[in-house]
Amino acid sequence: xxxxxxFCRIIKGDSSAKFVYKDIDLVxxxxxxxxxxxxxxxxxxxxxxxxxxxxxxxxxxxxxMMLKAKEIAEELGIKDSGYKLxxxxxxxxxxxxxxxxxxxIGGWGKI
Length: 111
Ligand code: 5GP
Ligand code: ZN
Known about the structure:
Helix content is 22%, strand content 23%. It has a single domain, classed as HIT-like (HIT family, subunit A). It is α+β, with helices and mostly antiparallel strands. It contains two helices and five strands. Zinc ion binds next to α1.
């Protein structure tokens, strides 16, 4: 938990978000500024700054995040229409929140 981190505050419940999933390892919530009709962020509970800070011990967690992305895509009805999974790594790539997250983006043509 890093109290300067917005995603840690959301996970702790100190800041609000529209959750679509929560368990002991990861959470998922809607992006406050969506770039598409569906824009969910899949976030590990552990404060990991980015892909660059990943360690071998995170292997199962990363795998779980990818599988959860697929499940959420299905639940939100975009599994077959198609979606993007994006991870920005570092400020040069557009990362602004330095707590690892996968963007699940899709739903074009649904609205
Ligand atoms: P990044 O650019 O770091 O890959 O993406 C961070 C994302 O987090 C941005 O798309 C931004 O809209 C989203 N975001 C930032 N602050 C909040 C917040 O307080 N709540 C929610 N739900 N999303 C946020
Ligand atoms: Zn954090």
